[in-house]
Amino acid sequence: MKKVLVITYDKVDDSELMYPLYRLEEAGFEYDVCSLEKKTIHAKIFVTAEATLLPEETDTSVYDALYLPGGSAPEKLRQNARIKEIAREFVRDGKPVCAICHGPLILISAGLVKGRKATCYAGVRDDLINAGAIYSDEAVVTDGCLITSRHPKDLPAMMKAFVAAINAK
């Protein structure tokens, strides 16, 4: 069975957490939620998820893909050295890495976007461009193993691309 690592924290966007987790389950994938603390993660409004894994406990070899939802969480997560290393390990191994909205901030801080096509929330666009990415204002942008998306309206297209990439591995 395929397994996905989800890295998030409090104030994640509700829809960017709930919709993908349901789609991963529907596709028959397992997932673990990794965060800065083992606790109940509280999204901006009402969604919760149990974080059962810390970054320093994470072995990327047991996962087939990585998902980075947006909201306010990535701003804090990008400051953690192990989280950035986790993202680098997935990319190094050619495993699908999907980031939406503010999620690409983690990819930026990990040094993974230079010369790559990507998209993000409009408020992150300049950060992406300044990090050397080739910005494209599209619902989903795939460049190798990186899959990026802009905002919640793009979730159906993003998850279609992400599930297909996981199944292709």
The coarse silhouette is: globular
**Count of individual beta strands:** 10
H/E topology pattern? EHEEEEHHEHEHEEEH
| SS strand fraction | 15-25%
Instruction: Provide a count of the helices.
Output: 6
Low-confidence stretches: none
Strand order of the largest sheet: 2-1-5-6-10-9
Q: Please outline the major beta sheet.
A: 6 strands, mixed
Computed Rg: 14 Å
Could you write a compact summary of the structure shown?
With 169 residues, the chain is an alpha/beta fold. The protein has helices at 14-26, 73-77, 81-92, 104-109, 125-130, 155-168, and strands at 3-7, 30-34, 40-42, 48-50, 65-68, 97-100, 117-118, 134-135, 140-143, 146-149.
What do these coordinates show?
It is a single chain. Helices cover 33% and strands 21% of the residues. The protein has six helices and ten strands; from the N terminus they run E-H-E-E-E-E-H-H-E-H-E-H-E-E-E-H. Strands 2-1-5-6-10-9 form a six-stranded mixed β-sheet, sandwiched between helices. Strands 3-4 form a two-stranded antiparallel ribbon. A hairpin with a 2-residue loop joins strand 9 and strand 10. The longest helix is centred in the last third of the chain and has 14 residues. The mean pLDDT is 97.
Keywords summarizing the entry:
6-stranded mixed beta sheet; single chain; 169 residues; alpha/beta; two-stranded antiparallel ribbon
Write the layout of secondary structure elements.
Blueprint: E1 3-7, H1 14-26, E2 30-34, E3 40-42, E4 48-50, E5 65-68, H2 73-77, H3 81-92, E6 97-100, H4 104-109, E7 117-118, H5 125-130, E8 134-135, E9 140-143, E10 146-149, H6 155-168
Parallel strand pairs: 1-2, 1-5, 5-6, 6-10, 7-8
Antiparallel strand pairs: 3-4, 9-10
